[in-house]
Amino acid sequence: MNKLEIKNLTKTYGRKKANDNITITLENGVYGLLGPNGAGKTTIMKQITTLTEPSEGEIIYNGENIKKLDDKYRDLIGYLPQEFGVYKNFSAKQFLQYVGALKGLTGKNATKKIEELLKLVGLYEVRNKAVGKFSGGMKRRVGIAQALLNDPKILVLDEPTAGLDPQERARFRNLISQISKDKIIILSTHIISDIESIAKETIMIKDGAILMKGNHRDILSAMEGKVYSIKSTSENEVNEIQNNYKVVNIQRGIDEVELRIISDKIPPYKEIEAVEPKFEDVYMFYFDLENTREV
Ligand SMILES: Nc1ncnc2c1ncn2[C@@H]1O[C@H](COP(=O)(O)OP(=O)(O)OP(=O)(O)O)[C@@H](O)[C@H]1O
């Protein structure tokens, strides 16, 4: 079992608190860090991977401070940064050989591990092709493979699905579920569906602090009785609703508009019904998105 205790983690840049008193305990499984741009997700990850030192607080791995564990701890980490660069002219296999060598993995062990990982991420057939010719999703999979080269116990993935198409995203999620049994996986995203389908726990971050954390059900139950669907045939009414409520979704039919809204009280409209909360509503409620999604 792996246990990572993050205690009162605070990171300040000048006057800005990028992280503010973050306390969480992570065990094997997938944790999703969810929050808008600038919320502080990358900063948490950089501290977990030791790329940045906390201003205050500490991180404990299996009972020992990671500062004290030093390289022993770093050997347990796999990291896919947000901006993951590849050497375009290298093949997938050469790239992994290169990163493997940097991590001290050479010889037969390296060959075996690289072959295994290429198969795991579904790139074995194209292992000799130049990475520069890969799609975004394939490059991300190379990124995951390199992060797994040292059999990490803690895998940190910063926005791993950014720029992926739905098919690539589904493939990525399957891969993560497959490898999550014996390690802590922390991934950041602002794509709600990533979290919905694979994270055992979601940690919602806003302005550097934890806003809420819990499993799917905990988070959705906090929204119970706050989500409504309103049908309207009047454009004036639709405008009024948009001005007065948090609108998650607007669906325009031929002569009717259906709005999905969030409200603490029952709004005073005739054609209204309470609906089951979805993760998208949660995001809207807590992060107050400026843009309504029109479909
Ligand atoms: N090296 C730095 N120097 C100064 N400010 C920083 C630095 N790194 C991060 N910040 C600030 O800290 C805050 C949190 O940034 P962070 O990158 O952790 O957010 P994020 O949630 O990962 O956002 P994104 O999804 O855009 O990557 C932001 O306001 C950012 O501008």
TrEMBL record:
InterPro entries: AAA+_ATPase (IPR003593), ABC_transporter-like_ATP-bd (IPR003439), ABC_transporter-like_CS (IPR017871). One of its GO terms (molecular function) is ATP binding. PROSITE patterns: ABC_TRANSPORTER_1, ABC_TRANSPORTER_2. Coiled coil: none annotated. Residues 4-232 form the ABC transporter domain. Keywords: ATP-binding, Nucleotide-binding, Transport. The keyword ATP-binding applies. Belongs to the ABC transporter superfamily. This is ABC transporter ATP-binding protein.
